[in-house]
Structure to design on (491 residues):
């Protein structure tokens, strides 16, 4: 082996910047990363962490991929970027950001995956990194791994505009969330069927965090220490406040939280922000993506759409890869993205006709949204399950379903579910609005295969449905789905 090859072999894939007092907290985490074949280098951050990152990247000959900032901003300084698009709406328009450590060449695009674990002490660092390791090592392969829980606040732009925004959001969920996933929507709008009892709104939202989910995402208004409130009859009901966030305790898999709102990720404040409160909760989210300052409706919509699409279309392996891919798509989704073109056309007509100003707003949001979490953390997306069934079945008939997956043994939950684009009426109520399945059966998985028979309800309305399968095994989880049409009578 040549000297150059030896040097490159020892060059880091992962750089950790942390005060020396926290270095001992990295022992188990570092062993785990090195067991995955990742070379880890640990350094003190210096006065300019971004300069340290660039130095190590040059020495690695481009091998460096991930940067973990371990400590709050007093231990590992963040960068600041002057905000122009947000300046008219922000008391402090300096954008607190860790994106400078990801952007090596100054073009605003991420070249590395960067995340911050905002530990306050060595013990705190051990606890937060320990939660990441426990998350990756979890043998709980239950249905939390297929859940996507969406919480939304009322935009407050008027009934027609709010209804249009809801329709747009539902359309994106229909098109970009796999039918294999279990989706719930909680909308703090008294006029929506997806609104729970307003008196228990925060309790319901806490439940969506603590039931266990792959991702919980919030879209709406927020502040440094709370999400928005829903106003009913002159009384304001909180969606999620810091006290509730600090007491989150997930019953199963702790979710990754994506909070698309103003200032909930203001990690440079003198007091922990909402994202930090949630992250430090013993059973809170295992990672949070949130904005450090006021964020803007158009760019927020773009960011939420690209986070959704990057997760399920690109199937990233790590948390940092997911966030980085979404950032790049925010800047440029590439040709042929009909949804993005629709967003841009609507924004040009109703929001900002100047394309350059929209581009500036998108760029600032690359810096506004920071990852509070470990960028090397593995994402627990289920493996593929192949599903076979007839293309059509009559009401009241029995539908044979079979399939296969990489899991040798386990149990398959086979469901017949309504289409995501179905019409939901206010009178349906919150529970019915979020209940998609109309029939289900469980079947054993043996040698990677399963067979089941679904009884199609006799009173089911004819139309397009979906067969959805989730396999819970001893060594992993798998999901899959297939279209089926329910007819008046058997074909």
């Amino acid at each position: 082996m040549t000297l150059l090859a030896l040097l490159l072999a020892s060059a880091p894939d992962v750089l950790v910047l942390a005060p020396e007092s926290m270095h001992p907290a990295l022992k188990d985490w570092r062993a785990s990363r090195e067991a995955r074949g990742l070379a880890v280098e640990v350094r003190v951050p210096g006065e300019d962490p971004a300069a340290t990152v660039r130095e190590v990247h040059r020495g690695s000959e481009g091998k460096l991929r991930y940067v973990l900032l371990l400590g709050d901003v007093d231990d590992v300084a963040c960068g600041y970027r002057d905000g122009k698009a947000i300046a008219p709406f922000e008391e402090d328009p300096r954008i607190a950001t860790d994106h400078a450590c990801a952007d090596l060449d100054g073009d605003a695009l991420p070249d590395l995956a960067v995340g911050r674990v905002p530990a306050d002490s060595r013990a705190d660092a051990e606890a937060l990194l320990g939660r990441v390791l426990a998350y990756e090592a979890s043998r709980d392969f239950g249905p939390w791994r297929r859940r996507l829980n969406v919480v939304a606040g009322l935009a407050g732009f008027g009934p027609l505009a709010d209804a249009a925004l809801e329709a747009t959001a539902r359309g994106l969920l229909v098109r970009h969330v796999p039918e294999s996933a279990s989706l719930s929507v909680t909308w703090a709008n008294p006029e929506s069927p997806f609104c729970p009892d307003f008196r228990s709104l925060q309790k319901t939202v806490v439940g969506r965090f603590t039931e266990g989910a792959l991702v919980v995402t919030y879209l709406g208004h927020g502040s440094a220490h709370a999400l928005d409130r829903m106003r009913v009859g002159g009384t304001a009901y909180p969606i999620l406040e810091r006290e509730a966030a600090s007491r989150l305790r997930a019953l199963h898999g702790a979710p990754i939280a994506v909070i698309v709102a103003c200032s909930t990720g203001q990690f440079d404040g003198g007091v922990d922000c909402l994202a930090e409160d949630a992250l430090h909760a013993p059973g809170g989210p295992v990672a949070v993506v949130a904005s450090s300052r006021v964020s803007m409706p158009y760019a927020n919509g773009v960011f939420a759409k690209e986070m959704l699409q990057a997760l399920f279309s690109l199937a990233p392996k790590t948390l940092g890869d997911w966030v980085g891919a979404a950032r790049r798509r925010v800047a440029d989704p590439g040709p042929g993205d009909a949804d993005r073109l629709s967003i841009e056309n609507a924004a040009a007509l109703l929001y900002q006709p100047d394309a350059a100003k929209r581009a500036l707003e998108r760029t600032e949001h690359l810096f506004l949204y920071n990852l509070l979490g470990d960028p090397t953390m593995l994402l627990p997306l289920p493996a593929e399950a192949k599903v076979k069934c007839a293309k059509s079945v009559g009401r009241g008939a029995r539908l044979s379903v079979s399939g296969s997956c990489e899991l040798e043994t386990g149990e398959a939950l086979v469901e017949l579910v309504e289409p995501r684009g179905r019409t939901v009426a206010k009178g349906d109520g919150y529970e019915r609005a979020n209940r998609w399945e109309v029939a289900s059966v469980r079947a054993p998985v043996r040698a990677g295969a399963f067979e089941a028979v679904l009884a199609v309800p006799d009173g089911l309305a004819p139309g397009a449905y979906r067969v959805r399968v989730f396999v819970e095994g001893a060594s992993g989880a798998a999901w899959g789905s297939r279209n089926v049409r329910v007819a008046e009578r058997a074909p």
Observations:
- The chain has a mean pLDDT of 94.
